[in-house]
Write a structure and sequence with these properties.
The chain has 8 helices and 10 strands. By secondary structure, it is of the alpha/beta class. It has 2 domains: 74 residues, Winged helix-like DNA-binding domain superfamily/Winged helix DNA-binding domain (Arc Repressor Mutant, subunit A); 111 residues, NAD(P)-binding Rossmann-like Domain (Rossmann fold, 3-Layer(aba) Sandwich). The chain is globular and about 60 Å long.
Length: 209
């Protein structure tokens, strides 16, 4: 099945599977059952089997899944053989935290360049990532296709338009603003305040039993 025919819910779970399989491989485990996968990633076994079925026969009944084979498969599917370079826009508290973390654990996504308007931050190096002035966006982005927005909400639309102009096709938006971009641009919105409100609501109104 072509990648774009895979349900989006399945596609979102693939990095979860990859992280767990990678950890198993590092522990020297040779095989894993759908039940073990289910308990680890908190997704029911039937869903895991259905997700995997989109990619053909990944395991054998009664045997489970070969860890090394799955790891190679997910690396290829998630393009983990290649390094994806990411630009960070906005080096405030959250942006600085991202630069120090830099997604280095268990994947090949790396923030390689950052931008800010604060002259005190411009020209510095945070977590091994150089910080440039936001006015240098077009000059410095080059072939970067993915950007993270950690800037004030009222600046999000204007900066997103600049990113699109300079070839960025994927934006991870940590601002509360719902940015307007052309339909071919992929935007994932992560509003931490809403996620926290949602968590508190579910704690109060829904039982896990």
């Amino acid at each position: 099945m072509e990648q774009n025919k895979i349900p989006q819910a399945t596609a979102k779970r693939l990095p979860l599977y990859y992280r767990f399989i990678n950890n198993l491989n590092q522990q020297g485990k040779k095989r894993v059952s759908s039940k073990e996968l289910s308990e680890a990633v908190k997704v029911d076994s039937a869903t895991i089997r259905r997700d995997f079925s989109y990619f053909g026969a990944l395991g054998k009944k009664g045997y489970g899944y070969n860890v090394e084979y799955l790891l190679g498969f997910f690396k290829s599917t998630l393009d983990q053989h290649e390094i994806t370079e990411v630009a960070l826009i906005g080096v405030g508290n959250l942006g600085t935290a991202f630069l120090h973390y830099n997604f280095m654990k268990n994947n090949n996504i790396r923030i390689t360049i950052a931008f800010d308007a604060d002259e005190k931050k411009v020209g510095t190096d945070i977590g091994g990532v150089p910080v440039y002035h936001i006015d240098e966006l077009g000059e410095r982005l080059k072939d970067t296709e993915v950007a993270i927005l950690t800037i004030p909400a009222d600046e999000a639309d204007a900066i997103a338009n600049q990113l699109v102009e300079h070839g960025v096709s994927g934006i991870l938006n940590f601002t509360p603003a719902r940015i307007t971009v052309p339909s071919h641009i992929r935007v994932h919105h992560i509003d931490l305040a809403i996620e926290l409100q949602s968590l508190v609501y579910f704690l109060k109104h829904y039982s896990l039993q």
